[in-house]
## 1
Amino acid sequence: MSISEQHTVLNPILETLRQKGNSSFAKQGLPTSKNESFKYTKFRELNLDNFVFAKQEHKCCCNEHKLGFDAYEIVFCNGKLCHNHCSGLDKIEVLPLIDAIKDKTSQKYLNKSFDMDNFPFAALNNAYLEQGLFIRVAKDYVSDKPLALVYHLVANEKYFCNIHNVVVLENNAQLDLVEYYYHAGDIKAEYFNNVVNEFFISKNATLNHYKVQNDAFKAFHIALNVANVKQNGRYDSFCLQKGALLARNETVVKLLEEKAQTEVNGAYVINGWATADTSTYIEHLHSETYSNQLVKGVVGDYAKGVFQGKIYIAPDTAKINGYQLHKALLLSDDAVVNVKPELEIFADDVKCSHGSTCGEIDKEQMFYLRSRGISEQNAKQILITAFINELFNKISNPNIISWLKSF
Amino acid sequence: MDKTPLLEIEDLCAQVDNKEIIKNFNLTINKGEIHAIMGPNGAGKSTLSYVLCGKDGYEVTSGNIRFKGQNLLDMNVEQRARAGLFLIMQHPVEIPGVSATTFLKHAVNDIRKANNLPEIETMDFIKDIKNISRNLNLDNDMLKRSLNVSFSGGEKKRMEALQMSVLKPCLSILDEADSGLDIDALKTVAKQINSLKDEHKSMLVITHFQRLLNYIEPDFVHIFANGRIVKSGDKNLAIELEQNGYSQYIKENA
């Protein structure tokens, strides 16, 4: 993998960003278990030298709707932007990131929500910065349908898909953002999605972020989502992790002003030798902020689920609610779940809780269903589906619920 | 009445956690008959119902059970249900996230599939369960809610009776079907269960009290103590028990 294989039209701003990313990643390297935030997720099998960028001239045939519901759709193929059905929208500005960074506005946001020296994969992402979007929803605009980013993988080569999106919601704006990662080529394709999403949610704005990661079973998928939420703003997310050999969905939410709120929910349903890591860091940086997390996992075969959830409550704040709950079902004796909940509370007037449960499918429930004639396999499936479906109660868009249920 | 045996239990011994609970138990139920088993707490009544359904942990150590002439012990839990065995449970388990409608449709279709029948028409199915729930005074809302979750004792039993009505088993075992029911709910449930009676369908009613038997009238009453039947008779035996209690039977067999 080398920079020279990339987009040739470079500009000085991009060049500077890449150099910074490059030196930061060189300093950090791939994380090991000594890195506390990667304690349970091993990167032994990730060899960066194996990956290449897809050629720009790749003929893409994926201009078809994959979602099954009406949305403004943008398609990436093998990590390259290939169809932007949103270029002419009036109230939602959608620009390729590489074009947007020429402009001062986007520079106000890009990489401003995290310190890449603490996020090795975000540093790597910057070292190869090119693909991704700058999306801005105009003040007071409530989008009539979801904006969907479809990441399509078709080829069988070891592609490196390096995406960086910046999404800005101006005051009072509302958007449902869908991310869908899937593969349509060889099921053994070994590619690497490395994604950074930065969300800037202004006063009274709401972003609902739905993600489905259904990558090929030998793929790697690392995503960092950072949301900055201002007064009375809201970032709600739901992430379903199903595929990949190693998947990590990390969500950092900074509740910056009063009445900023977030719900960070998710599910992982994995088997084989897969690892699915859900890491969250909710920062209550102001009084009267609210967060809630519910993450559920279903782990079969030799798979491993990881949940690391941290809630931070800054000093001199008050009237804060922060809740976190993780529940996992283990379907085999060799399935593993590692859980690390953390609360860092530096204030008094705070309601916080965390909990985690881990168990097998309830034997009494299995007996009950089977005693009515339901096969063992169906009974198991009914109970797993019910376990996951609880998560959909909080989603208001019925199209998105049925889409999520289809996996 | 047709004297074809439906369920034949011979010298059954069964244990739970290595403790023998059922000891040389014998009982034959013919088609169309209603049998009541009455016994004190701890006699092994619920164990008997679980053994018949094939629940894990209820181990048959000796004896035979034939159901419709087939060896019941060769069948797993769902095969027994598909053959026509149904248990109204004393304490139906809560299943969050699964509605009665969804779950019953799975049950009906799995049973139909095992009998090489096509899947049921959804409209027919919905109409059927709505009719039955009306007879049972069960709100339509109850069919959509998570099964048994925060249902009252009466609602749970009515939900069991609903399932029995949909699945139309040839042998229903009612394990303390009256527990948790007030008198009105008891009448409603009993009326529904009675409506399912015909010359091919049999019932095994397990109870402490004679009360339920006022509504579901048995052909035979058996007193069950210390793991076996110690006395059999007609419905008058239940009335006698109500007056004198179980103590004489427990002593005799201690």
Note: The radius of gyration of chain A is 21 Å.
## 2
Amino acid sequence: MATATGSGGMHVGRLLVQVGSILACIAFWQVASTLRLNLGIVTFRNVPPPTEVLQSLIVLLQSPKLLAHLGSSLGRVFAGYGVAALLGILLGFAIGRSRAASDVLLPPLELLRPIPAVAWIPLSILMFPSSELSMIFITFIGALFPIVLNTIHGVANVDRRLVASARSLGGSRAAILWEIVLPGAAPSIVTGLAIGMGTSWFCLVTAEMISGQFGIGYYTWESYTLQNYADIIVGMLVIGLFGMGSSWLLTTLGHVLMPWRSPMVAR
Amino acid sequence: MKAPRVNGHGVGLGRIAIEDASISLGHGDDASEAVAGLDISVAPGEFVCILGPSGCGKSTLLGALAGHVANSGGSLTVDGQAITGPSPDRGIVFQQHTLFPWKKVRENVCFGPKMRGIGKVVRRQLADELLALVGLSGFEEFYPSQLSGGMQQRVEIARVLINQPRVLLMDEPFSALDAQTRSMMHELLLDIWTERPTTLIFVTHDIEEALFLADRVIVMSRRPGRIVEDLRVPFSRPRPADIVTEIEFARLKRRLLLLLRPDQQSTTLHEYQSEHALAPN
């Protein structure tokens, strides 16, 4: 009882410190921007204070522009990331399970892998008929490699004794792929999907800044060119929020698809 | 007790014939003989323990009987049929951690019938029967990670027995358990084997375990594994747990201990690894 309240009290205490830390950062931001603090190498002269950002955020939330921007960003991510997830898992399975497929598919992938997705932007603008497609392509490229590599890793590292057991229990090749290799590789695949989601957002925002017409990255960059400095930070916050939301979505997906990793019943 | 038996499901018990069998592991220059020129015949329904030091090729031999490792010479047959690959007719239980972690206990046990295309209702009923047999009723909805090591091995046994194998192969199935759980598992295994008889090949390096369980103890030498002793265990069944304190038990134990006394050559890491390796899938 004493320990419970003791640790409970400690828990509340730590929470207070953590929240206080965030509040202190915001307070510093407010003070630095209103005082137009200049530290020599970095200046807060053009940084709008949090109160102003909050006002801009409220304005954006009420304007129909928000839905248009978010809609086009989400549409691109879903398209590019969706194709990358599907293709990445298929490629990863083929490469991880078959030596022939690995010999054919892996060398070109390994050659392309070191090129950062954003380096593809100019070429993709040239290659695709619309800037929409080129942006989708960038999010696709960004997500593809982490998904492929983590799937290969997961498929190749499925415990061989589990496969041996399944074969001894009468499992066919197809059944082993579905019943053993897929769930065995699932944790690694979900890790790849989560990393891919992060890079996908990163690439999308960059691509939108360069060639977009709508989208949250475009909104952020447009605010800069129009000198709506508060809107820049609003854009940044929205991007961060959606990045957080999508990674939460994947963690939840992981828990739903792999209940054995966090069983609810006590031992 | 020694007469060939047929179990309640009308499935015959396997007669195993190993004739001049050699098994090599690895390829090319790395290849080494795990067992050489082995001759063993096992009568239907017999309980045979294969005893040997680690690295003697006993697990490899079991892998070959399961059909996971191919023999390089001689022949391995069950009821006259050559072993060409894994089959639910020859169930194998490993040391630990080979339950499917993503399947609940019941679904693990159901795996064999599911592969044979048996409907959900029937296979679940079969699984629950087997789980009752191994004393795990009430744990059907648990994940393997929620069970103790001994309970996990009981699920393993149920999962293999649901296929009504003609041969049950066990590869040091209890060696990861604590002493008390292990001796409980010995009695449980004998009970199960009495109720659902199969031909049983049990690999171990534990002399007492072998003497307590088996009809016959076959002792293998260091690599390449050869038979150095084929001992018929004289104790009648059912065997009380305190049989291990009898004089005759101690005498046989001493005899096997001398046979197993390690000679100077020690097992290299390489030998250990290939001993525990499985064929590529």
Note: Chain A has two domains: 1-47, 48-261.
## 3
Amino acid sequence: MTASVDAGRHRAGPAFLTSPGMRLVGKRLLLAVPIVLGVSILTFWVLNLIPGSAAQQLLGPEATPAQVRALELELGLDRPAVLRYLDWLGGAVTGDLGQSLVSRQPVTDLLGERLAVSGELVVLAFVISLGLAVPTALLAAHRPNRLFDRISMVVSITGLSVANYVLALLLVLVFAVQMAVLPAIGFVPLSQGLGENLRSMALPAAAIAFPLYCFYTRFLRGDLVDQLQGEDYVTTARAKGIGPWQVLVRHAFRNSAFGLITVVGLNLGSLIGGTVIVEQIFALPGIGQLMLQAINTRDFVVVQACVVVFAVVAVLANLLADLLYAVLDPRIRYGSR
Amino acid sequence: MRAHDDVLAGAGGVQESHFPALSGPESGFPELPADGETLLEVRDLRVRFSRRGRHVHAVNGLSYRLEAGRMLAIIGESGSGKSVSSRALMGLLPSTATVTGSARFAGTELVGMTEAQMRRRRGADIAMVFQDPTRSLNPTMRIGTQVVEAVRAHADLDRRAARRRAVELLSLVRMPVPEQRFGEYPHQLSGGMRQRVMIAIALAGEPRLLIADEATTALDVTTQAQIMELLVELQHRLGMAVILISHDLGLAASYAQDVLVMYAGRGVEHAAAETLFAHVRMPYTRALLGAIPLLEREPHTLLPVVPGQPPDLSALPAGCPFAPRCASADEQCAVDPPLTEHEPGHRWACWHPVPDAPAPDAASGDRS
């Protein structure tokens, strides 16, 4: 992470294409291995502690112990947990996450479509929240403590204090029930047209986006005002005689963006798992819904796969944020000497 | 390694520059003003910072006159108001500051200007170079872009012309290989180089007054001398007036034509540099001179200091603000001495001026 000193040789281009950047990616991906491994072991262990087996759930409360025992044998649930974990791990390394205990479908097939739905939901939520938060924060920081800033502060604090399932229900009440402009539940896949697909995604995406919007607005506005009031380069920029918007956007925002990227990176990783409740409310066939169903049916194989996917996404999102940092901030040249 | 570049640049002597201002009368810079023309007249300037009902009086009735093309050093301790009073001229104070009094720049009143009016003058009439070049440049922008931005703030130039002009400015401040430096970031330059970039930015709007706010304080002594010589050279070549804000009396004595000593937000002594240093009148100036560390002094003795603490600017006592720290203070000092011209060209604010030719250590030497 030393700043490169070989001045004048390189124009700071996309640093991630240079070899130290690639080495960083390699190193970080290697580091991700023990993290994901640890998560999978922990999940496996915890799932084994939960009372009730998949066989019991499948057969229902009327089943005799003998029937349950037979199915357990068939599913391999009688073998020691360590062996079952190693089996699972061996498969996972080769891309085979096993079969659902309930539907007997390969887990990778189940995950594929579910991940696409959750992914779309998260991406939409981020586009909406950031797309609105940046202009709001700029307007608020342009005149701190004036009317617009105060209104946006009230909105943000409200948004941050309302849980997103409450917000989701409110959105359904207003847009689906009273105004009847958007569907309350259900999912229309992209193959049936972008417009319909977006209509079905609008309310769930808004429910996730709004608290994020509030948070990003507060965060960015605060950082912008700090830059404007505390940083000497802002005074230099003002002393040049350039306009206030130019100072705000070209100078303060450029530097505030770095903090925002970090926060977004952290959120992105945790959010894919945070869609569980919203997917449930809007009956979206996403990965969160899949996991919830799997927990109810004690379908440990599927739960295990979901948790590992969440861990991988979190690691990748953080790596992405770090790399974005290196591309945007000329002071950071990872790994060069 | 970087300092080496500075030395090379500084050792080059007066090299031919492509800067248009330096060749011919149709230069971009304003004509040289006639000698003695008043460029800036500050009268009873006051700056007050208010926060939650508490007022801090940072500048308390500062008055001075600056002639075009001259270098004025404003000297004082931290908190004496030297920096605040200069930022007030450019409207660069935070919104908690209230500025009153008068500051006329080339006949135009600066105090009370709207932000939009002030913005048009910033960089074009008055420009500023700050103390810490590391923090004063945007770390995420190429230096060329930062200079171009200053060029285009006041001149309607297209991209290429602005770029050409920015490269000229960089060579004017003796930046070696300016075309190459253009695309670099501040962290790739040495402190001295960064300060040259800051000066190039300040010169972009062809200002008639350049305020150097502790511009060399963060630099090592060698680089400091090079930057000072650059400033003096630019002052003469471009006919700019310079206000040199510093706590360094040596710097003022070596480079400035006029010296204004500030204490507690007001001027306490003001004269041409040679007059002031030959005939120090104000006990505070005398104490400051006595506090300069000397190589000849015995090792392991305490450094001489100005005794006492600077006054609390939120509760200034009546009378001379220096009286509590002054050896010659008496009951007369309960009445504030005005800054008046007692000898031709020499103003001071004291009832008990120091007589001529005392030993430099007399005021505070006995403390060591």
Note: The radius of gyration of chain A is 24 Å.
## 4
Amino acid sequence: MATVKLSFSPAPVHVRTARLVGVAVARRAGVREDLLDEVRLAIGEACTRAVALHRQYGLSDPVLVEMSDSGAYAVRVVDRAPIEAGIGLAALPPDELAKESLSEDALTTGVGFALLAGFVEDLQVRPVEEGIGTEVRMVWPVGR
Amino acid sequence: MELSLATRTVGEHTVLEVGGEVDVYTAPRLRERLLELIDGGARRVVVDLGRVDFLDSTGLGVLVGALKRLRSAGGSFALVCDKEPLLKIFRITALDQVFPLHPTVDAAISADSTGAGA
């Protein structure tokens, strides 16, 4: 089993780095080539969400991304924001999406969750076991 | 790859060609450019995503923002996209039912000119 951990200051510029590392480790772990675009997008969405929460709550704590390949490729993205903010899988119907009253932030959050749920079959969003925060856990099969 | 933005005019339409990665870091630049165009009087806007190789929820949010702004100004907004990975993103988020999506710039312009646009 190999584990790669990445911890980054909650700034948008670092999300790309997390995506690149996440895909590199996925490829190395044996995730099918045709799934890598989805891995890239999902890790990006999870990290974007974490960065947005840290900024919303004025937290300078780093966002943690942990990738491991024990049997499958598992990625955890951990934020440190208060729990009430973190869990809420809002799927927005199309007629809501174009509504004038829906803010761009709310739309982006809803769309981000739709992408996570749509691209990751094995997805969990849950409170962290210790301290404050939530973790987004995503698992992809490794094909041999 | 970094974000690239290039604007050209085709008749009444303003075509914004976007390339590279549109994500939480680069999307503000796309938002600014779209606002500049709309504030500058562009009312029929086509955004060509043909050279985009990454698009996330932040980028989608910016595109929806531009669509709403143009609609309320009596204008039109359409997207050009023929790459399956990107089209899948629009389907999963149901945004394929919100944006007029066309495979080419010509198709987007002719659909809008015949009144089938947004």
Note: Residues 4-103 of chain B form a domain with the Transcription Regulator spoIIAA fold (CATH 3.30.750.24).
